[in-house]
Write a structure and sequence with these properties.
10 helices, mainly alpha, membrane, about 75% helix, single chain
Length: about 200
């Protein structure tokens, strides 16, 4: 049990992930963007803090290297999610709930997808959980692959570009901010919690 708790902490602690290096960061981003069982992994604040750690020099890679690696991981991860939905969507929809899969996440994403159409692929990049399931739902609904690829690239570019770049320049100009990482995480978790609760209340209505 202790080993499971340690593993869970390592997978969800963004500072631990970032200090492990860019390869680990890109693997986490890849998984969180398209593997249905990885919806719990950090996303938004992982990108922002990666920028902060890059700007303060903890991560040695230049901004261009961070952006290119994380953008590629986000786009390829979402593409895997799309292909999973396209080829295995029916079995996923009939899958029973488990620790790493909740049918309600797929249902709430479907509602979000119906509301915003194709643009859901861009908007959902900034929404935890929905970000993971939107590519899968796009595959299930058999969205044309060329439309998906375009929106995947646009959404991934905006998500990675805004969060990593803003974090990088903030860390570069205010290096002391690295001492307040936990407050940044709490801020993003607050936004995440608000989003999830708001979506749940809408579904109840």
């Amino acid at each position: 049990m202790d080993e499971i708790n340690i593993l869970w902490h390592q997978l969800t602690d963004s500072e631990t992930i970032i200090r492990s290096g860019l390869l680990v960061i890109t693997l986490i981003v890849f998984a969180e963007n398209g593997l249905f069982f990885a919806f719990f992994l950090p996303g938004d604040y992982l990108l922002f803090l990666t920028g902060v750690f890059g700007g303060t020099g903890v991560l040695k890679e230049p901004l261009s290297g961070l952006l290119a690696s994380i953008f590629l991981a986000a786009v390829v991860g979402s593409l895997v999610g799309y292909l999973s939905g396209r080829f295995f969507g029916k079995s996923l929809e009939s899958r029973p709930d488990s620790l790493f899969f909740k049918k309600k996440h797929l249902d709430s994403t479907r509602e979000f997808f119906d509301k915003y159409g194709f643009m859901a692929l861009v908007i959902s990049r900034f929404l935890p959980v929905v970000r993971t399931f939107t590519p899968i739902l796009a595959g299930i609904s058999r969205m044309p692959w060329y439309s998906y690829l375009l929106l995947n690239v646009v959404g991934g570019g905006l998500w990675v570009g805004i969060l990593v770049t803003s974090g990088y320049y903030l860390g570069q100009h205010f290096p002391w901010i690295i001492n307040y990482v936990h407050y940044i995480i709490l801020f993003f978790l607050g936004i995440t919690t608000f989003t999830v609760i708001k979506g749940y209340l809408k579904m109840r209505q």
